[in-house]
Amino acid sequence: MKTNANRWKRAGALWAVLVILAGTGAACSRTGEPVTASGTEVTERTQPPSQPSAAAAPAEPDWRLLLVNARNPLPEGFTVELKTLEDGQAVDRRIWPDLCRMLEAAREAGLSPLICSSYRTNAQQQSLFLRKIRRLEAQGLPHQEAREEAARVVAPPGTSEHETGLALDITAQSYPVLEQDQEDTPEQQWLMENAWRFGFILRYPQGKTEITGICYEPWHYRYVGREAAKEIQEKGLCLEEYLAEPETGG
């Protein structure tokens, strides 16, 4: 009798446990998957594969650092929005504010800078280049030699910075001559020392002819922006050297 009583007790206890488990929903479905308290089967939720983010668009080239020389002609279809100055000269309108600041600072220092050349059309550049060739031929140079020599002084059309609107020839008002002794004028000495503060560099410095392809011109200034101008000035570089330097990230 004791054995049967014990069996009934165990059976009753087991039934009570099943009732409790059923009430809490801690049971299994036929498939063996977990179910909710309401008896609904829970299926594993799989996240859809993440979509690759759209590739970042390539950065626009910095217009201030456009390289134009015999090996890098102006891009096809190049255009520039010009700002005409009071004296009839014209520049890329984006450099006009810094140009005004630089000229005003020079005048406040008691100097008289003169812009004697700025933006040129392709036709104007062609005319200057051919004129230089004819002059050299008149001195007795064969045509090909005259052409090569002319290109060291006047850039062939399509390869001149003057066609970008970013370059200017600036002289002393008292000596508007594009000769090497222009470097001795107070205006030129001031510009060589301070132009970088306004985003300009002396584009064809002494000792860089083999790199730039253009002879020393102590009057030709080019806008590159203040950050680049500061580094070029501090390191004694020409634009070609600056652009060839590897970038250093922080």
Can you describe what's shown?
It is a single chain. The chain has 250 residues and is α+β, with helices and mostly antiparallel strands. The protein has helices at 2-24, 96-108, 122-138, 143-150, 186-194, 209-212, 226-235, 239-244; strands at 82-84, 90-92, 113-117, 167-172, 200-202, 220-223. The strands form two sheets. It has a four-stranded antiparallel β-sheet. Strands 1-2 form a two-stranded antiparallel ribbon. The relative contact order is 0.12. The model is unreliable at 1-47 (pLDDT under 50).
Brief sketch in words of this structure:
With 250 residues, the protein is of the alpha+beta class.
**What is the mean pLDDT?**
83
Supply the helix-strand structural class. Answer: alpha+beta
Number of helices: 8
Helix content: 25-40%
How does the overall form come out from the CA principal axes?
globular
Number of strands: 6
Radius of gyration: 39 Å
Order of H and E elements: HEEHEHHEHEHEHH
Q: Enumerate the strands of the largest sheet in spatial order, edge to edge or round the barrel.
A: 3-4-6-5
Largest sheet: 4 strands, antiparallel
Give the end-to-end Cα distance, rounded to a whole number of Å.
89 Å
Strand content: 5-15%
Which residues form runs of ≥5 with pLDDT under 50?
1-47
